[in-house]
Amino acid sequence: MEFTREIYWNVGHGVLIPMYLLAFIAIGIMIFGFYKRYLVYKMGGSENRLDSLFDRIFYMLRNVFSQQKVIKEKIPGIFHGIFFWGFLLLFIGTLLVFLQADFTNPLFGVKFLTGIFYLVFSLVLDLAGLAAIIMLSALLIRRFFIKPEGLETIRDDYIIHGILLVILITGFIIEGLRMSVTELGSGSFLPYFSPVGMFAANIFAGFDAGSLQGAHKFIWWFHFLLAMTFIGIIPFTKLRHIFTTSANLMFKDNRVKGFINTPDLEDEQAEQFGCEKLTDFTWKDIFDGDACTKCKRCQDRCPAYATDKPLSPMKVIQQFQEAAFYENTENMVDFVTPDVLWSCTTCRACQETCPADIEHVNKILEMRRNMVLMKGEFPGDEVITATDSLEVNGNPLGFGFAKRGDWADGLDVSLVSEQADVDILYFPGCFASFDKRNINVAKNFVSICNELGVRVGILSKEEKCCGEPARKLGNEYLYQMMAMENIEKFSEYNVKRIVTTCPHCFNTLSKDYRQLGLDGSVQVEHYTTFLHKMFEENGFNLESEDFECTYHDSCYMARYNDILDEPRSLITSAGGRINEMDKNRYESFCCGGGGGRILVDEKIGTKVNAARAKMAADTGSGMLISNCPFCLSMFEDGIKTAEVEDKIKVRDISEILVDRIKRRS
After folding, report:
1. Which of 2, 128, 140, 229 is the most buried (most CB within 10 A)?
2. Do 440 and 461 lie in a common domain?
3. Could you read off the pLDDT of 327-385 as tens digits, one per residue?
4. Residue 616 CB neighbour total at 10 angstroms
5. Residue 486 and residue 615 in one domain
6. How far apart are CA 289 and CA 462, in angstroms?
7. Pair (348, 417) in one structural domain
8. CB-neighbour burial class of residue 269 (10 A; exposed 0-12, middle 13-18, buried 19+)
9. Would you say residue 301 lies in a domain?
């Protein structure tokens, strides 16, 4: 017996004309549906997301076919990944059948679905279909019976799960009916290469051939019409993500992580700054809403949502879709609501975990800009006070600008205004200049540099806040004013290398300042990477002493700048044994101070810093180490709020290192 099967068995080739007619109708409906959505996307402003097109396409294909972003979420991700691969194999199998039956065989007399290839083809498709059914059933059970908290279920979910499951099951029923008539009892081992089909065939084995053929023809048409319905409804249901999520991967932001558009505040033609109406945003912002699959990964990782704030990154993105397609909403700020917008810490956990590369943070920042620059709205009076201090004294803490360099009294450090020939310009930032706890960090860093023979210079009272908190709170004008003054000083003193102990300053100076004219040759580093490099280059060994600790990854170190290992290396070189918190590295939980919220009183829900302090205490390490002034300050308060003062103490990496260096000396 030849290893093959008759294509269009029982239904005959007469089905071709109605079959293709229905297929063209289904595809036409799908194209029309996407065209209607395309017209809505065009409501947004222009933005080029097709540069480096080859790289974009490669990135999309790699992620779509590997499902690498999806399967990061172990259980549902693996279920979805296996289902996708199974369904993909079935789709490829269908294309091969079409290719032989309607192209190579009638035109050239070529049949390739024969012999060993057909046996492999048959076995692979059977197993792929079985895997798809099992995984789809698992996802169905998770959504409709286990019902994870926060996972929204809507009408689309019932339609999608139902239609896919029926398509898969009827496919095996059709195969079983065919095999029951043509293969069972033939003495061939061909049925064994379709194990699921053979199982179905044995169920039907007791019926007469005529009844089986009648049932086969009916279910074949039902299966086909269901498949065409599936194609036609794609743009009108969540199934659209098959195309929109894939496309969104191609449209990803290829700029540096955390890139923020820098508006020209001197543009006299500009009627407003920031975004309020849906049409103020870009087409990509609207498209993001259609690319969202409501998987809730962003929501699960949002520190604001986890501490009972009104912010859900998933809901914000869905509100863009609702406003564009259903609500006809004009004012996005009011639709999303200010409390939601002010809750964001810009930790970027939502974007880091999103399998669709949706961009949440900048939408929020643009709406904050609109509230501050166009309406003068702030999250609280304390922010107005801090803003006034920034304008007058160049720092948000209320200290006079003339005292900015007082922390360095008695230290071996130069004023670059008097001695510009230094190895590095140390940019301590506001907290290390004025906050008592963080002043120790600045002093420690200088002491370590002295030990390494690094000549350190500072701007002292000529330094201004980097402007990051003001910018993240929407005050772009104040940010640009301070940034330009700092850039002017860097240029005046021909600064070539800047080191800062603040991740927020580091991120702002190394990335955002470039848009305002900071010379690309100026090297900007965080002190942990700088010291790690210096220790390695100089063969510098610390006086190691064993201790246990846990380490907190600052959002602006890990997620914004991919700095994970260097700080840990410094800790271990000092003798530290790190007991990692459950949420670490890219999954780290925010301290609550990002997004300018270091200046905002936390009035809604529970405190983010207390939640993180509790996570640290639960490791039983006794010591929490950070390398960010915001984190250090937030944890000092969070430990008290969480009432774990007897379980955990917070220290900066510099405090650990300087202790070992003193002992070494």
Report:
1. 128
2. yes
3. 878 799 999 999 999 999 999 999 999 999 999 999 999 999 999 999 999 999 999 99
4. 30
5. no
6. 45
7. no
8. exposed
9. yes
Quote the CA–CA distance of 455 and 414 in Å, as a whole number: 8
Domain of residue 491 covers: 395-535
Determine, yes or no, domain membership for 387. Answer: no
The CATH number covering residue 571 comes to 3.40.50
- For 95-102, which contacts have Cβ atoms below 8 Å and span 24 or more sequence positions? 96/121, 97/7, 100/7, 101/7, 101/8, 102/16
Domain match, 217 and 87 both: yes
Same domain, 95 and 215: yes
Same domain, 165 and 203: yes
Where b means 16+ CB within 10 Å and e means fewer, 128-143 reads bbbbbbebbebbbeeb
Structure tokens at 540: 């510098």
CA distance 300 to 573: 34
N residues, the chain: 665
Q: Tell me, rounded to whole angstroms, the distance of Cα 358 from its chain centroid.
A: 7
Maximum CA pair distance of the chain? 102
Last residue of a domain, one of 509, 535, 561: 535
The yes-or-no verdict on residue 665 having pLDDT over 70 is: no
Which tens digits make up the pLDDT trace of 397-425? 999 999 999 999 999 999 999 998 999 99
Q: At what angle do helices 195-203 and 115-141 cross, to 10 degrees?
A: 80
